[in-house]
Amino acid sequence: MFDASTPVAALLGLLGLLVGSFLNVVIYRLPKMMEQRWAAECAELHATDDAPAPSKSQPFNLMVPRSRCPHCGHRIRWFENIPVFSYLALRGRCSQCSTPISVRYPAIEVVTAAMFAWCGWHFGWGWEALAWSGFSAAVLALAAIDWDTTLLPDDITLPLLWTGLCVAGLRITDTLLPDALWGAVAGYMSLWLVYWAFKLVTGKEGMGYGDFKLFAAFGAWFGWQALIPVILMASLIGAVVGIAIKLKGNLREGGYVPFGPFLALAGLTSMVFGPPAMLAVVGL
Questions:
Q1: H helices within the chain, ranges in order?
Q2: Angle (CA) 124 129 133, round 5°
Q3: Residue 202, CA distances (Å) to 52, 186, 239 in order
Q4: Closest Cα to residue 265, out of 278, 253, 256, 276?
Q5: Which of 10, 40, 136, 154 is 20 to 30 A distant from 211 in Cα terms?
Q6: Cα–Cα nearest to 104, from 161, 40, 147
């Protein structure tokens, strides 16, 4: 049924396709940029006055170099980089070497478009729809990066945290600033305490500091009231997926499963359905 929110949803959905294409770049390149930065810092730390200066490598960031096929090095042309449509036109293969292209690329674009369209449909045109669209894009990128690398980059988690506090302070969202502030504090401290309790008991690290920051960001966006529903939903999803992976024998080396993707999924669920509905799902 057509209503006033339909054009907004369509417009934001189209924007989401473009943003999703950019997220694919972020998901692939940001961890590599972090590794390069760490390598440069280590080299600088261990450098001596007699050691030769390290050679400058080619620039590698979110803008350069242009995207290439990782198998044959074919430079992706503009008409091969149209979200979703190029993948379908190329039948999911490189135009040069016919190597299969991961289906995750169009999947990220479609999911981003769907989330943006939902924000436009639910919130209508305005800053709130744009704010939650940005939230969903950042959370999706974090989920994919953490699944691939077990990293939750500060380059995304910290801006997400501060943006949540800012939009609450500006009354762009329904979350009040005191609730957002204490949500950020409680989100970080709760997982920090769990981390140290687990480490003291087992001598192992059960999660990373990126999880603390992501949970703090959710506290900033949703308020402290949403923290229990979010963590319960994330734990439930993580338990189900973890058991399924273990039964299939696909656990990674060390037997761990990153928690960030499940936390991210719970955060997106909270955005769509709200914390009370999540509590009903987990039986509370």
A1: 5-46, 85-89, 104-123, 127-149, 154-169, 177-202, 209-222, 227-248, 260-273, 275-281
A2: 140
A3: 44, 24, 19
A4: 278
A5: 40
A6: 147
Phi-psi region of 204 (alpha: psi -120 to 50; beta: other; left: phi over 0): beta
Give tens-digit pLDDT for 37-95.
Answer: 888 888 777 765 555 555 556 788 888 888 888 888 788 888 888 899 999 998 888 88
For 167-200, the pLDDT digits (tens) are 999 999 999 999 999 999 999 999 999 989 988 9
Residue 139 carries which side chain, given as an amino acid letter?
Answer: V
CA angle 62, 63, 65 (to 5 degrees): 105
DSSP codes of every residue in 111-158: HHHHHHHHHHHHH-SSHHHHHHHHHHHHHHHHHHHHHHHS---HHHHH
